[in-house]
Amino acid sequence: MPKAYDFDLFTIGAGSGGVRASRIAAAYGAKVAVAEERYLGGTCVNVGCIPKKLLVYASEFSAALEDAAGFGWAQTQSQFDWQKLIANKDREIERLNNVYERLLVDAGAQIIRHRAQLLDAHTIAVNGRRLTARYILIATGSWPTIPRIPGAELAITSNEAFHLPDLPRRILIIGGGYVGVEFAGIFHGLRAQVTQVHRGALFLRGFDDDLRAALAEEMRTRGIDLRFNTQLSKLARSDGGITASLSDGTRLEVDMVMFCTGRHPNSSGLGLEAAGVKCDANGAILVNEYSQTSAENIYAVGDVTNRRNLTPVAIAEGHAVAELLFGGQRRVIDYDNVPSAVFSQPPLATVGLTETAARARYSAIEVYKSVFRPLKHTLSGRNERTLMKLVVEPRSGRVVGAHMLGPDAAEIIQGLAIALKAGATKAQFDATIGIHPTAAEEFVTMREKSA
Protein backbone atom coordinates (compact mmCIF):
# COMPACT_ATOMS: atom_id res chain seq x y z
CA MET A 1 0.00 0.00 0.00
CA PRO A 2 1.23 3.54 -0.72
CA LYS A 3 2.47 5.49 2.27
CA ALA A 4 -0.12 7.76 3.90
CA TYR A 5 0.84 11.43 4.19
CA ASP A 6 -0.75 14.24 6.17
CA PHE A 7 -1.08 16.27 2.97
CA ASP A 8 -0.97 15.69 -0.75
CA LEU A 9 0.70 19.09 -1.22
CA PHE A 10 2.47 21.25 1.31
CA THR A 11 3.30 24.72 0.03
CA ILE A 12 5.89 26.90 1.75
CA GLY A 13 5.12 30.51 0.93
CA ALA A 14 1.76 32.18 0.30
CA GLY A 15 2.80 34.58 -2.42
CA SER A 16 1.24 34.69 -5.86
CA GLY A 17 2.81 31.46 -7.13
CA GLY A 18 2.23 29.46 -3.97
CA VAL A 19 -1.38 30.56 -3.61
CA ARG A 20 -2.22 29.79 -7.24
CA ALA A 21 -0.68 26.31 -7.06
CA SER A 22 -2.43 25.57 -3.77
CA ARG A 23 -5.82 26.74 -5.01
CA ILE A 24 -5.64 24.73 -8.22
CA ALA A 25 -4.37 21.62 -6.41
CA ALA A 26 -7.19 21.84 -3.87
CA ALA A 27 -9.70 22.28 -6.70
CA TYR A 28 -8.48 18.95 -8.10
CA GLY A 29 -9.32 17.37 -4.75
CA ALA A 30 -5.84 17.36 -3.19
CA LYS A 31 -5.43 17.87 0.55
CA VAL A 32 -3.35 21.06 0.73
CA ALA A 33 -1.61 23.09 3.43
CA VAL A 34 0.09 26.46 2.96
CA ALA A 35 2.65 27.74 5.47
CA GLU A 36 3.37 31.48 5.56
CA GLU A 37 5.36 33.23 8.28
CA ARG A 38 4.77 36.82 7.14
CA TYR A 39 1.79 37.91 5.06
CA LEU A 40 -0.61 36.40 2.58
CA GLY A 41 -0.02 37.56 -0.97
CA GLY A 42 3.76 37.73 -0.71
CA THR A 43 5.97 40.57 -1.89
CA CYS A 44 3.69 41.72 -4.71
CA VAL A 45 0.64 42.38 -2.56
CA ASN A 46 2.38 43.66 0.55
CA VAL A 47 5.69 45.35 -0.30
CA GLY A 48 5.85 45.21 -4.08
CA CYS A 49 3.70 45.65 -7.17
CA ILE A 50 0.40 46.72 -5.62
CA PRO A 51 1.43 49.24 -2.96
CA LYS A 52 4.17 50.57 -5.23
CA LYS A 53 1.67 51.26 -8.02
CA LEU A 54 -0.59 53.03 -5.53
CA LEU A 55 2.34 55.25 -4.52
CA VAL A 56 3.09 55.88 -8.21
CA TYR A 57 -0.48 57.08 -8.69
CA ALA A 58 -0.12 59.40 -5.70
CA SER A 59 3.14 60.84 -6.99
CA GLU A 60 1.74 61.58 -10.45
CA PHE A 61 -0.74 64.15 -9.15
CA SER A 62 1.94 66.80 -8.63
CA ALA A 63 2.78 66.79 -12.35
CA ALA A 64 -0.92 66.67 -13.23
CA LEU A 65 -1.51 69.79 -11.15
CA GLU A 66 1.29 71.56 -13.00
CA ASP A 67 -0.08 70.44 -16.38
CA ALA A 68 -3.61 71.61 -15.56
CA ALA A 69 -2.82 75.29 -16.02
CA GLY A 70 -2.47 74.89 -19.78
CA PHE A 71 -6.00 73.50 -19.89
CA GLY A 72 -7.56 76.48 -18.14
CA TRP A 73 -7.43 75.33 -14.54
CA ALA A 74 -6.28 78.00 -12.12
CA GLN A 75 -3.28 77.00 -10.03
CA THR A 76 -4.33 76.37 -6.46
CA GLN A 77 -2.20 75.63 -3.45
CA SER A 78 -1.91 71.90 -2.87
CA GLN A 79 -0.89 70.01 0.24
CA PHE A 80 0.13 66.37 0.43
CA ASP A 81 -0.59 64.12 3.44
CA TRP A 82 1.82 61.16 3.56
CA GLN A 83 0.16 59.58 6.61
CA LYS A 84 -3.23 59.59 4.88
CA LEU A 85 -1.77 57.94 1.78
CA ILE A 86 -0.09 55.20 3.82
CA ALA A 87 -3.23 54.61 5.90
CA ASN A 88 -5.36 54.28 2.77
CA LYS A 89 -2.75 52.02 1.18
CA ASP A 90 -2.67 49.83 4.30
CA ARG A 91 -6.43 49.46 4.22
CA GLU A 92 -6.33 48.25 0.62
CA ILE A 93 -3.50 45.79 1.35
CA GLU A 94 -5.46 44.42 4.30
CA ARG A 95 -8.42 43.88 2.00
CA LEU A 96 -6.22 41.98 -0.44
CA ASN A 97 -4.76 39.88 2.38
CA ASN A 98 -8.30 38.87 3.26
CA VAL A 99 -9.04 38.08 -0.38
CA TYR A 100 -6.06 35.72 -0.54
CA GLU A 101 -7.12 34.06 2.70
CA ARG A 102 -10.65 33.57 1.38
CA LEU A 103 -9.38 32.14 -1.90
CA LEU A 104 -7.35 29.51 -0.07
CA VAL A 105 -9.98 28.65 2.52
CA ASP A 106 -12.80 28.46 -0.01
CA ALA A 107 -10.69 26.13 -2.14
CA GLY A 108 -10.25 23.85 0.87
CA ALA A 109 -6.60 24.56 1.67
CA GLN A 110 -5.38 24.82 5.25
CA ILE A 111 -3.38 27.93 6.16
CA ILE A 112 -0.58 27.59 8.71
CA ARG A 113 0.75 30.99 9.80
CA HIS A 114 4.19 29.87 10.90
CA ARG A 115 7.65 29.32 9.42
CA ALA A 116 8.16 25.90 7.83
CA GLN A 117 11.42 23.99 7.46
CA LEU A 118 12.19 20.79 5.59
CA LEU A 119 13.49 17.86 7.62
CA ASP A 120 13.64 15.51 4.66
CA ALA A 121 12.01 15.22 1.25
CA HIS A 122 8.59 14.45 2.74
CA THR A 123 8.70 15.91 6.25
CA ILE A 124 8.16 19.49 7.34
CA ALA A 125 8.71 21.01 10.78
CA VAL A 126 6.27 23.80 11.55
CA ASN A 127 5.23 25.35 14.87
CA GLY A 128 6.62 22.44 16.88
CA ARG A 129 4.92 19.81 14.75
CA ARG A 130 6.18 17.34 12.17
CA LEU A 131 3.95 17.06 9.12
CA THR A 132 4.36 14.92 6.04
CA ALA A 133 3.43 15.55 2.43
CA ARG A 134 3.51 13.58 -0.79
CA TYR A 135 4.60 16.70 -2.68
CA ILE A 136 6.18 19.90 -1.44
CA LEU A 137 6.19 23.23 -3.25
CA ILE A 138 8.66 25.97 -2.31
CA ALA A 139 7.43 29.44 -3.22
CA THR A 140 9.27 31.68 -0.77
CA GLY A 141 10.11 34.48 -3.20
CA SER A 142 13.05 36.86 -2.88
CA TRP A 143 14.39 39.39 -0.39
CA PRO A 144 16.17 42.75 -0.78
CA THR A 145 19.97 42.55 -0.90
CA ILE A 146 21.89 44.95 1.35
CA PRO A 147 25.45 45.81 0.31
CA ARG A 148 28.27 45.32 2.79
CA ILE A 149 29.47 48.84 3.40
CA PRO A 150 30.17 50.81 6.60
CA GLY A 151 26.94 52.28 7.94
CA ALA A 152 24.63 50.07 5.88
CA GLU A 153 22.36 49.67 8.90
CA LEU A 154 21.35 53.34 8.54
CA ALA A 155 19.58 52.69 5.23
CA ILE A 156 16.21 51.20 4.40
CA THR A 157 15.07 48.89 1.60
CA SER A 158 11.84 48.77 -0.39
CA ASN A 159 10.33 46.66 2.42
CA GLU A 160 10.46 49.59 4.84
CA ALA A 161 9.65 52.30 2.28
CA PHE A 162 5.95 51.45 2.42
CA HIS A 163 5.74 52.05 6.17
CA LEU A 164 7.70 55.26 6.76
CA PRO A 165 6.15 57.46 9.46
CA ASP A 166 7.05 60.60 7.51
CA LEU A 167 8.04 61.52 3.97
CA PRO A 168 11.77 62.31 3.79
CA ARG A 169 12.70 65.73 2.40
CA ARG A 170 16.00 64.50 0.90
CA ILE A 171 16.51 60.90 -0.16
CA LEU A 172 19.41 59.05 -1.73
CA ILE A 173 18.55 55.94 -3.74
CA ILE A 174 21.30 53.42 -4.36
CA GLY A 175 20.85 51.13 -7.36
CA GLY A 176 19.72 51.26 -10.96
CA GLY A 177 17.19 48.46 -11.26
CA TYR A 178 13.48 48.96 -11.78
CA VAL A 179 12.78 49.29 -8.04
CA GLY A 180 15.24 52.15 -7.66
CA VAL A 181 14.01 53.92 -10.78
CA GLU A 182 10.38 53.62 -9.70
CA PHE A 183 11.01 54.91 -6.18
CA ALA A 184 13.07 57.80 -7.55
CA GLY A 185 9.96 58.85 -9.48
CA ILE A 186 7.67 58.25 -6.51
CA PHE A 187 9.63 60.34 -4.01
CA HIS A 188 10.32 63.09 -6.55
CA GLY A 189 6.64 63.27 -7.48
CA LEU A 190 5.82 63.65 -3.78
CA ARG A 191 8.20 66.64 -3.84
CA ALA A 192 11.20 65.18 -2.07
CA GLN A 193 14.70 66.01 -3.29
CA VAL A 194 15.96 62.81 -4.94
CA THR A 195 19.47 61.66 -5.85
CA GLN A 196 19.92 58.28 -7.50
CA VAL A 197 23.34 56.64 -7.64
CA HIS A 198 24.18 53.72 -9.91
CA ARG A 199 27.53 52.02 -10.41
CA GLY A 200 26.98 51.46 -14.15
CA ALA A 201 27.06 53.86 -17.06
CA LEU A 202 23.26 53.70 -17.40
CA PHE A 203 20.48 52.18 -15.32
CA LEU A 204 17.93 49.45 -16.17
CA ARG A 205 20.36 46.90 -17.58
CA GLY A 206 18.57 44.43 -19.85
CA PHE A 207 16.07 46.93 -21.23
CA ASP A 208 16.43 48.50 -24.66
CA ASP A 209 19.26 51.05 -24.73
CA ASP A 210 17.19 53.76 -26.43
CA LEU A 211 14.55 53.55 -23.70
CA ARG A 212 17.19 53.61 -20.95
CA ALA A 213 18.86 56.71 -22.34
CA ALA A 214 15.57 58.51 -23.03
CA LEU A 215 14.24 57.79 -19.53
CA ALA A 216 17.45 59.12 -17.95
CA GLU A 217 17.04 62.35 -19.92
CA GLU A 218 13.39 62.70 -18.90
CA MET A 219 14.16 62.08 -15.22
CA ARG A 220 16.93 64.67 -15.24
CA THR A 221 14.61 67.15 -16.96
CA ARG A 222 12.12 66.65 -14.13
CA GLY A 223 14.81 67.44 -11.56
CA ILE A 224 16.09 64.07 -10.35
CA ASP A 225 19.84 64.06 -9.70
CA LEU A 226 21.15 60.97 -11.52
CA ARG A 227 24.75 59.98 -10.84
CA PHE A 228 26.04 57.11 -12.97
CA ASN A 229 29.44 55.39 -12.77
CA THR A 230 29.30 56.12 -9.06
CA GLN A 231 29.16 53.93 -5.95
CA LEU A 232 28.31 54.45 -2.30
CA SER A 233 31.37 54.06 -0.08
CA LYS A 234 29.95 54.54 3.42
CA LEU A 235 27.16 56.05 5.49
CA ALA A 236 27.45 57.90 8.78
CA ARG A 237 25.13 59.74 11.16
CA SER A 238 25.40 63.51 11.08
CA ASP A 239 23.68 66.51 12.63
CA GLY A 240 21.84 67.02 9.35
CA GLY A 241 20.67 63.40 9.08
CA ILE A 242 22.89 60.95 7.18
CA THR A 243 26.15 61.69 5.39
CA ALA A 244 26.72 59.55 2.31
CA SER A 245 30.27 59.31 0.95
CA LEU A 246 30.45 58.49 -2.75
CA SER A 247 33.21 56.91 -4.81
CA ASP A 248 33.83 60.18 -6.70
CA GLY A 249 34.83 61.88 -3.45
CA THR A 250 31.61 63.84 -2.96
CA ARG A 251 29.44 63.75 0.15
CA LEU A 252 25.70 64.17 0.40
CA GLU A 253 23.61 65.16 3.41
CA VAL A 254 20.26 63.39 3.23
CA ASP A 255 17.40 62.42 5.50
CA MET A 256 17.13 58.87 4.19
CA VAL A 257 19.10 56.35 2.16
CA MET A 258 17.31 53.55 0.33
CA PHE A 259 19.08 50.46 -0.98
CA CYS A 260 17.63 49.22 -4.26
CA THR A 261 20.60 46.98 -4.96
CA GLY A 262 18.83 43.89 -6.16
CA ARG A 263 17.04 40.97 -4.56
CA HIS A 264 18.19 37.44 -3.80
CA PRO A 265 16.28 34.16 -3.61
CA ASN A 266 14.72 33.70 -0.17
CA SER A 267 16.01 30.15 0.24
CA SER A 268 18.22 30.15 3.33
CA GLY A 269 17.10 28.35 6.47
CA LEU A 270 14.54 26.19 4.70
CA GLY A 271 16.35 22.88 5.23
CA LEU A 272 16.91 22.38 1.51
CA GLU A 273 20.08 20.31 1.93
CA ALA A 274 18.32 17.89 4.29
CA ALA A 275 15.67 17.34 1.62
CA GLY A 276 18.16 16.93 -1.22
CA VAL A 277 17.24 20.19 -2.97
CA LYS A 278 20.12 21.82 -4.85
CA CYS A 279 20.70 25.55 -5.32
CA ASP A 280 23.07 27.59 -7.45
CA ALA A 281 25.81 29.82 -6.04
CA ASN A 282 23.32 32.65 -5.51
CA GLY A 283 20.86 30.52 -3.56
CA ALA A 284 18.38 30.08 -6.40
CA ILE A 285 16.69 26.67 -6.33
CA LEU A 286 17.59 24.68 -9.43
CA VAL A 287 14.58 23.32 -11.31
CA ASN A 288 13.80 21.67 -14.63
CA GLU A 289 11.25 22.84 -17.20
CA TYR A 290 8.43 21.52 -15.00
CA SER A 291 9.68 23.40 -11.89
CA GLN A 292 10.86 20.11 -10.37
CA THR A 293 13.90 20.30 -8.09
CA SER A 294 16.67 17.73 -7.60
CA ALA A 295 14.34 16.00 -5.11
CA GLU A 296 11.73 14.44 -7.38
CA ASN A 297 8.72 15.17 -5.15
CA ILE A 298 9.71 18.78 -4.40
CA TYR A 299 8.94 21.66 -6.74
CA ALA A 300 9.76 25.37 -6.66
CA VAL A 301 8.26 28.38 -8.43
CA GLY A 302 8.64 32.14 -8.55
CA ASP A 303 11.51 34.36 -7.51
CA VAL A 304 13.16 31.69 -5.36
CA THR A 305 14.12 29.97 -8.65
CA ASN A 306 15.42 33.24 -10.19
CA ARG A 307 14.06 32.56 -13.67
CA ARG A 308 11.76 35.40 -14.74
CA ASN A 309 11.05 37.28 -11.52
CA LEU A 310 7.60 38.61 -12.35
CA THR A 311 4.35 37.98 -10.49
CA PRO A 312 2.37 36.73 -13.53
CA VAL A 313 5.20 34.31 -14.32
CA ALA A 314 5.13 32.90 -10.78
CA ILE A 315 1.36 32.47 -11.08
CA ALA A 316 1.74 30.61 -14.39
CA GLU A 317 4.46 28.38 -12.93
CA GLY A 318 2.38 27.56 -9.85
CA HIS A 319 -0.66 26.76 -11.96
CA ALA A 320 1.37 24.45 -14.19
CA VAL A 321 2.79 22.56 -11.18
CA ALA A 322 -0.70 21.93 -9.79
CA GLU A 323 -1.92 20.72 -13.17
CA LEU A 324 1.08 18.42 -13.49
CA LEU A 325 0.76 16.85 -10.05
CA PHE A 326 -2.99 16.59 -9.73
CA GLY A 327 -4.54 17.30 -13.13
CA GLY A 328 -2.51 14.97 -15.32
CA GLN A 329 -1.36 17.81 -17.60
CA ARG A 330 2.26 18.42 -18.55
CA ARG A 331 2.72 22.04 -19.51
CA VAL A 332 6.00 23.87 -19.99
CA ILE A 333 6.00 27.63 -19.38
CA ASP A 334 7.09 29.65 -22.41
CA TYR A 335 9.39 32.44 -21.24
CA ASP A 336 9.69 34.06 -24.67
CA ASN A 337 7.87 37.33 -25.27
CA VAL A 338 6.98 37.90 -21.63
CA PRO A 339 6.03 41.59 -21.38
CA SER A 340 7.29 43.75 -18.54
CA ALA A 341 7.07 47.36 -17.44
CA VAL A 342 8.86 49.86 -15.28
CA PHE A 343 6.45 52.27 -13.60
CA SER A 344 8.91 55.10 -13.84
CA GLN A 345 7.85 58.64 -14.67
CA PRO A 346 7.30 58.53 -17.58
CA PRO A 347 6.71 54.75 -17.61
CA LEU A 348 8.30 52.31 -19.99
CA ALA A 349 7.26 48.86 -21.16
CA THR A 350 8.68 46.21 -23.41
CA VAL A 351 8.03 42.83 -24.97
CA GLY A 352 10.35 40.65 -27.01
CA LEU A 353 13.95 41.32 -27.94
CA THR A 354 15.86 44.53 -27.42
CA GLU A 355 17.72 45.87 -30.43
CA THR A 356 21.01 44.61 -28.98
CA ALA A 357 19.64 41.12 -28.33
CA ALA A 358 18.08 40.96 -31.80
CA ARG A 359 21.38 41.90 -33.46
CA ALA A 360 23.08 39.13 -31.54
CA ARG A 361 20.47 36.55 -32.58
CA TYR A 362 19.81 37.43 -36.23
CA SER A 363 22.10 38.14 -39.17
CA ALA A 364 20.08 41.25 -39.98
CA ILE A 365 17.30 43.27 -38.36
CA GLU A 366 15.19 46.31 -39.13
CA VAL A 367 14.44 48.97 -36.54
CA TYR A 368 11.53 51.40 -36.69
CA LYS A 369 11.50 54.26 -34.23
CA SER A 370 9.31 57.25 -33.49
CA VAL A 371 9.87 60.09 -31.02
CA PHE A 372 7.12 62.67 -30.56
CA ARG A 373 5.51 65.05 -28.13
CA PRO A 374 2.27 63.65 -26.69
CA LEU A 375 -0.84 65.60 -27.67
CA LYS A 376 -1.57 66.42 -24.03
CA HIS A 377 1.66 68.34 -23.66
CA THR A 378 0.97 70.64 -26.60
CA LEU A 379 -1.21 72.53 -24.11
CA SER A 380 0.40 71.58 -20.79
CA GLY A 381 3.71 72.97 -21.98
CA ARG A 382 5.66 70.06 -20.54
CA ASN A 383 8.74 69.26 -22.60
CA GLU A 384 8.34 65.50 -22.58
CA ARG A 385 8.80 63.05 -25.43
CA THR A 386 7.31 59.63 -26.08
CA LEU A 387 9.54 56.99 -27.68
CA MET A 388 8.22 53.96 -29.56
CA LYS A 389 10.30 51.29 -31.22
CA LEU A 390 9.76 48.12 -33.22
CA VAL A 391 12.45 45.53 -33.95
CA VAL A 392 11.80 43.35 -37.01
CA GLU A 393 13.44 40.19 -38.37
CA PRO A 394 13.32 40.92 -42.14
CA ARG A 395 13.39 37.36 -43.53
CA SER A 396 10.13 36.38 -41.86
CA GLY A 397 8.90 39.93 -41.43
CA ARG A 398 8.05 39.13 -37.79
CA VAL A 399 8.09 41.84 -35.17
CA VAL A 400 10.45 40.42 -32.53
CA GLY A 401 10.53 43.39 -30.16
CA ALA A 402 8.26 46.28 -29.19
CA HIS A 403 9.35 48.99 -26.77
CA MET A 404 7.78 52.18 -25.46
CA LEU A 405 8.58 55.05 -23.12
CA GLY A 406 5.66 57.33 -22.41
CA PRO A 407 2.20 57.59 -20.80
CA ASP A 408 0.22 54.33 -20.72
CA ALA A 409 3.22 52.34 -21.99
CA ALA A 410 2.31 49.25 -19.96
CA GLU A 411 -1.31 49.26 -21.12
CA ILE A 412 -0.27 49.59 -24.77
CA ILE A 413 2.52 47.00 -24.71
CA GLN A 414 0.24 44.44 -23.05
CA GLY A 415 -1.86 44.44 -26.21
CA LEU A 416 1.19 44.21 -28.45
CA ALA A 417 2.41 41.24 -26.42
CA ILE A 418 -0.49 39.23 -27.82
CA ALA A 419 0.53 40.16 -31.34
CA LEU A 420 4.16 39.14 -30.77
CA LYS A 421 3.07 35.90 -29.12
CA ALA A 422 0.98 35.17 -32.20
CA GLY A 423 3.94 35.86 -34.50
CA ALA A 424 2.58 39.03 -36.08
CA THR A 425 4.55 40.56 -38.94
CA LYS A 426 5.38 44.17 -39.64
CA ALA A 427 3.09 43.98 -42.67
CA GLN A 428 0.21 43.01 -40.37
CA PHE A 429 1.04 45.92 -38.07
CA ASP A 430 1.01 48.20 -41.12
CA ALA A 431 -2.33 46.81 -42.29
CA THR A 432 -3.95 47.54 -38.93
CA ILE A 433 -5.92 50.77 -38.72
CA GLY A 434 -5.08 52.86 -35.69
CA ILE A 435 -7.33 54.62 -33.20
CA HIS A 436 -7.01 58.37 -33.57
CA PRO A 437 -5.91 60.41 -31.73
CA THR A 438 -3.90 58.07 -29.52
CA ALA A 439 -0.24 57.42 -28.89
CA ALA A 440 -0.81 53.72 -29.56
CA GLU A 441 -1.66 54.32 -33.22
CA GLU A 442 2.00 55.18 -33.81
CA PHE A 443 2.84 51.47 -33.57
CA VAL A 444 0.81 50.80 -36.72
CA THR A 445 1.91 53.87 -38.66
CA MET A 446 5.71 53.66 -38.42
CA ARG A 447 7.06 53.26 -41.94
CA GLU A 448 10.57 54.72 -41.99
CA LYS A 449 13.39 52.39 -40.96
CA SER A 450 15.96 53.89 -38.61
CA ALA A 451 18.40 50.98 -39.00
Shape: globular
What count of domains describes the coordinates? 3
Radius of gyration: 24 Å
Count all strands and give the number: 21
The structural class is alpha/beta
CATH topology of the largest domain: FAD/NAD(P)-binding domain
Top CATH class of the largest domain? Alpha Beta
Give the biggest sheet. 7 strands, mixed
Distance between the termini: 67 Å
Give the averaged pLDDT, no decimals: 97
What percentage of amino acids are in beta strands? 15-25%
CATH superfamily of the largest domain: FAD/NAD(P)-binding domain
Give me the secondary-structure topology:
Blueprint: E1 7-12, H1 16-27, E2 32-35, H2 42-47, H3 49-68, H4 82-107, E3 110-112, E4 116-120, E5 123-126, E6 129-138, E7 142-144, H5 158-161, E8 170-174, H6 178-189, E9 193-197, H7 209-222, E10 225-227, E11 232-238, E12 241-246, E13 251-254, E14 256-259, E15 263-265, H8 272-275, E16 298-300, H9 311-326, E17 340-342, E18 348-352, H10 355-361, E19 366-372, H11 377-380, E20 386-393, E21 398-405, H12 409-421, H13 426-431
Parallel strand pairs: 1-2, 1-6, 2-3, 6-16, 8-9, 8-14, 9-10
Antiparallel strand pairs: 4-5, 5-6, 7-15, 11-12, 12-13, 17-18, 18-21, 19-20, 20-21
Helix pairs in contact: 1-4, 1-9, 3-4, 3-6
Quickly describe the structure:
The chain has 451 residues and is of the alpha/beta class. It has 13 helices and 21 strands.
Structural description of this entry:
- The protein is an alpha/beta fold and 451 residues long.
- It folds into 3 domains: 7-144 and 264-326, FAD/NAD(P)-binding domain (3-Layer(bba) Sandwich); 152-261, FAD/NAD(P)-binding domain (3-Layer(bba) Sandwich), CATH 3.50.50; 340-444, FAD/NAD-linked reductase, C-terminal dimerisation domain (Enolase-like, domain 1, 2-Layer Sandwich), CATH 3.30.390.30.
- Helix content is 32%, strand content 24%.
- It has helices spanning 16-27, 42-47, 49-68, 82-107, 158-161, 178-189, 209-222, 272-275, 311-326, 355-361, 377-380, 409-421, 426-431, and strands at residues 7-12, 32-35, 110-112, 116-120, 123-126, 129-138, 142-144, 170-174, 193-197, 225-227, 232-238, 241-246, 251-254, 256-259, 263-265, 298-300, 340-342, 348-352, 366-372, 386-393, 398-405.
- The strands form 5 sheets. Strands 1, 2, 3, 4, 5, 6 and 16 form a 7-stranded mixed beta sheet that branches. Strands 17-18-21-20-19 form a 5-stranded antiparallel beta sheet, with helices on both faces. Strands 10-9-8-14 form a 4-stranded parallel beta sheet.
- It is globular and about 70 Å long.
- The model has no long low-confidence stretch (mean pLDDT 97).
